[in-house]
Every structure is written in structure tokens, then in C-alpha cells.
Amino acid sequence: MRVILSAFAVLLGAATLPLDAQVGNRPGSGFTTIIGSAMRYAIDYEQKFQLLVAEETYVQELQRPPNPGDNLSQRNPGGGMRAGGAVTRLVLRSDFMLVQLGGDGEGWMPFRDAFELKGAKLRERDDRLLKLFQSGDPKRFEKAAEFTEATAKHNLGNVARTINIPTLALMFLHPRVNERFEFTDEGEETMAGRVLRRAAYREAARPTLIKTTRGRNLALTGRIWIDPFTGTVVKTELNAADPAVRCAITVTFRKDDALDFWVPVLMEEYYKAALGLDEILATATYSNVRRFLKPASE
């Protein structure tokens, strides 16, 4: 799968709203008011940083489901259910970065630079991804893409995935793309003692934002959990499925007191190719989150 990044490379223009417009919904506010607050939150979130850097610990497993009739033998002539379970497991640690493409609604580009695989050092920990963008190197995007491509080669399974971006579903609320989606109210849900409003979304526009490697449309569905008083996005879910592949990505956010805004803390992923036997399960956790407000000098 690959992400069509150009869908986010558009100017926001006059859609920018003041910060105080996103807070202060009254108790019992209707769904339209709440989803409007969440859309303003997405605008404000985009303006929080030029670079967002974190350490990503990415645990991946290939899971093989039980397969009936796979263990025929003289003692078991009828076959039976072969037990499933983890086939392969690895832990990959990387520097993860979101880079603002230019501000005013142009979106972010994600990059990863692995430094440790299965406990073994791949390179020195020298913040080379961050230094690359702070240097203003005119080829910084090309070089960072090479780091990301090298990191992706360590991924397990037969699904080439580049949509595992923790802020992706949050940005479906952005005014420059939210008209592509239909949002419906799924009522309230309590999470960690906090009453949230759950919004379901469905991508209706074509061509879709995400396509398969063969160029087929891959329509997105999912849910977004919203604080009804502030519009803060606390959790997102993204689902994509077609005859060739299925995927599900769930991201949980928490407030970083030092940064004074909400950052991704956990991303859970599931992938299954129709022609493959194994399922891919992955969990990414984020630590040492840092943000940088100033753009790189040219």
C-alpha cells in the first residue's frame, strides 16, 4: 500500500480559525458542534510544530491462524486443526519524524531511521534525521526517504505498508480533505474515566487518498474519539479493505505536559494480504517526543 501524499499538499488559506474557537463547548452539545470543534482542532494541531521527533519502538509479529487438515499422518488420518501462533517476531527501534511540508494546510511527510534491530545496533545514535532537516540540506527529503526505505526493509510480511502514520486519521478532519468523508454520530463512550464522543467516518470521494500497489482505490473507514468539550482527538481508528488486502490501524494519544499538547503514544496495526497465509500484527510505542517550531533554513 502507499499513501497519496499529494492529497494533503494543498493550501489552507482562509480556513484558519483562532485557537479559542476550539474550546468551550457546552455540556450536551450536538454532534455537529463537536465535529466542528474537532475540525478546528486538526487545524490547530498542524500549526503546533514544524518537526515532530520521537523514538519509535516497533514490535512486529507474523501470526499464522489455525489451519484445518494440515497435519495428516498415520496417527491422525483425518487431519485436524493445526495450532496457530506467532511465526516470527522482531523489535525495531527507529527515530520517527513528521515534517511540515510548508504550513497552511500542506500536511506532513513521515520519515523513519532505524537504529536497532532485535537488540543489535544498526548505527550510532546521532540524531542524523533531525540534523539533516535542521541543516537545510537541499536534498534532505531525498536522503530522509532513503533512510525510510532502508528501515522499511526490516518489516515483516508481504504487505508493503507506508500508511502507518500515527496522525493520519486525525488529519481526515482537516478542512482541505474532510469533505471527502461522511461523518456520523455513534454516541458517547467512556475511556479511562473520560466521556468521549465517537464519530464514524467513511471515505466517499474518488479517487481515494490511499491506493494499493497496483493503483486500485482503497476506501477508508474508521472512528475518531473526541473530547466533546474541547474537540481534542484522543483516539483514532483507520480501516481499509479490498479483495487484495485488509488493514486496521488504531492510535491512542495522550497529553504531553512538557509540550502542552496531545501526542501519539501507541499505534496498533493489523494487515492481511488475501493471497498470504500469515497475518501481520504490530505495535508501535513513542517516547522522548520533541517538537521544533522553526523551519529549516535554506
Written overview of the protein:
The structure is a single chain. With 298 residues, this protein is mostly beta strands. It has one domain (2-292): outer membrane lipoprotein receptor (LolB), chain A. 12% of the residues lie in helices and 42% in strands. The protein is built from three helices and 15 strands. The protein has helices at 31-46, 128-134, 140-152, and strands at residues 2-3, 51-64, 67-68, 81-82, 85-100, 108-117, 120-121, 181-191, 194-203, 210-211, 220-226, 233-241, 245-256, 261-273, 279-292. Strands 7-6-5-2-15-14-13-12-11-9-8 form an eleven-stranded antiparallel sheet. A two-stranded antiparallel ribbon has the order 1-10. The protein has a two-stranded antiparallel ribbon with strand order 3-4. Strand 13 (245-256) and strand 14 (261-273) form a beta hairpin. The chain is globular. The protein starts with a strand and ends in a 6-residue tail after the last strand. The model is unreliable at 1-24 and 77-82 (pLDDT under 50).
